[in-house]
Amino acid sequence: TWKWVVGPMFLYLCERLVRFWRSQQKVVITKVVIHPFKTIELQMMKKGFKMEVGQYIFVKCPAVSRLEWHPFTLTSAPEEDYFSIHVRIVGDWTEGLFNACGCDKQEFQEAWKLPKIAVDGPFGTASEDVFSYETVMLVGAGIGVTPFASVLKSVWYKYCHDATNLKLKKIYFYWLCRDTHAFEWFADLLQSLEAQMQERNNADFLSYNIYLTGWDETQATHFVVHHEEEKDVITGLKQKTLYGRPNWENEFKTIAERHPGSRIGVFLCGPEGLADTLNKQSISNSEADPRGVHFIFNKENF
């Protein structure tokens, strides 16, 4: 028995030593941004830190707990000179981090008062493969939109500088939320990306569909009077917010018809139930012919 136990225990101890060594490296919080709906953004810098889109890190705040490590998806792009995470306040640890950063106070917080942070990572996820496809479907549910914030930021930077070598030609972005509050901290990025694509006469590059799943058409009746306005009254985007849940079968069939003979990457960050639905649709809408359309499903669950 000891022969089978020693190997895994040795690997576990090595992993703990590496994490301890990484936790001793200095991390500087450069900015704390308070977003609506009890969400904070931490912008940080660390010597030698290199990331790819969609990756995640483990974070420890000794001022809150000396032992707890929590995973967070990076919401910054590799082109930025800092890395950032968005933290939604939903429990004791996140509440403690919120208070430790002085977000519960009205006055301006001095930088030296910010807590020490330990970071382990970054670690890879399926979202790193986004730029390996010409066409992708990005599906985020609630706070699960965070890896795609990193992807869309990176796309924005690439278009600002040089997009000629970008293999990715078309993005279908779906964001499912139960209420309107979660839109507020992410709508600015979509507005910037929307404006950038229009300036470069490539408005068709990004097709996004935002769904309020906690509402239906009857609850949204009072917004109908604003439907003819140029911008959506909820998000401020040209694309109007949809209500209810998407018909995934129709969405997959429509995309398959538009891109015959393509390999289409389907990326999800969301609950297991939605992952099962998208996986089944990816299989049923992929053709048996190798030259036909194929949907490649990738997921991150929470």
Automatic annotation (TrEMBL):
A GO cellular component annotation here is: NADPH oxidase complex
- Record PROSITE patterns: FAD_FR (PS51384)
Q: Topology relative to the membrane, per the entry?
A: Multi-pass membrane protein
Q: Which cofactors?
A: FAD
Q: Which organism is it from?
A: Formicarius rufipectus
Q: Which InterPro entries match?
A: Cyt_b245_heavy_chain, FAD-bd_8, FAD-bd_FR_type, Fe_red_NAD-bd_6, FNR_nucleotide-bd, RBOH/FRE, Riboflavin_synthase-like_b-brl
Chain segments annotated as coiled-coil in the UniProt record: none
Catalytic activity from the UniProt record: NADPH + 2 O2 = 2 superoxide + NADP(+) + H(+)
Relate the protein's function as given in its record.
Answer: Catalytic subunit of the phagocyte NADPH oxidase complex that mediates the transfer of electrons from cytosolic NADPH to O2 to produce the superoxide anion (O2(-)). In the activated complex, electrons are first transferred from NADPH to flavin adenine dinucleotide (FAD) and subsequently transferred via two heme molecules to molecular oxygen, producing superoxide through an outer-sphere reaction.
As for subcellular location, the record says: Cell membrane
Record domain FAD-binding FR-type: where: 19-129
Q: Which GO terms describe its biological process?
A: defense response; monoatomic ion transmembrane transport; superoxide anion generation
Give the main location.
membrane
Keywords tagged on the record: Cell membrane, Electron transport, FAD, Flavoprotein, Glycoprotein, Heme, Ion channel, Ion transport, Iron, Isopeptide bond, Membrane, Metal-binding, NADP, Oxidoreductase, Phosphoprotein, Transmembrane, Transmembrane helix, Transport, Ubl conjugation, Voltage-gated channel
Q: Which GO terms describe its molecular function?
A: metal ion binding; superoxide-generating NAD(P)H oxidase activity
- Name this protein carries in UniProt: NADPH oxidase 2
